[in-house]
Amino acid sequence: MKKTNILAAIALTTLALLAVGAAVAQDIRYNFDKQADFSKFKTYKWVDIKDSTKLNSMVDQQIKRSVDVQLAAKGLTKTESENADLLIGYQGAIGQEKEFRSYNSSWGYGPGWYGGGWYGGPSSSWTTGQTSTIYIGQIAVDMYDSANKNLVWRGLVSKTIDPKATPEKQDKNLNKAMAKLFKKYPPVTKR
Q1: Do the domain assignments include residue 83?
Q2: Which domain holds residue 152?
């Protein structure tokens, strides 16, 4: 095999591995009020977001527990008091994407140039395809300043859902996603 063919094969393999890694990683996005003083927020209270889709109680508890762990690590304290500094709610959704995979199968030697002359012979080729549905889970966590009810921070995490994941794996994925999301809180502001 020529050196250029080996390098091309290595490059294609690397790109394929990066594409697979990107497909399973969490996508994290966030935004925040640049005028908010995040150092004053010490306590928080869970609230329901109006008109949001309600998840089942088991998933609701898992999400809140995972967020609670992250906020405690940031020094915030959960309270049921009406005097909480932050009001926190979340929204969850599952979206779908279609994935199409095609396979080309060919054999033989077709027409072409070789050694300065034209050659030809029998060959065969066919392409088949397969479509599958990919489920993408998203969770948006909103933080409101309780004094004026303004949104001060929003984080969104999305990830491809593995339909065959065990409950333990699902919980591990949720905790990993929340840990990655809350690396962005409190936001660093340049003043």
Answers
A1: yes
A2: 25-94+137-184
Domain count, the chain: 1
In a domain, 129, yes or no: no
User: What Rg do the C-alpha atoms of the chain give, in angstroms?
Assistant: 25
pTM, entire model:
0.70
* CA 111 to the chain's CA centroid: 47
36-66 pLDDT tens trace: 999 999 999 999 998 888 888 999 999 999 9
Report the candidate in 153, 146, 189, 151 with the shortest Cα–Cα distance to residue 70: 153
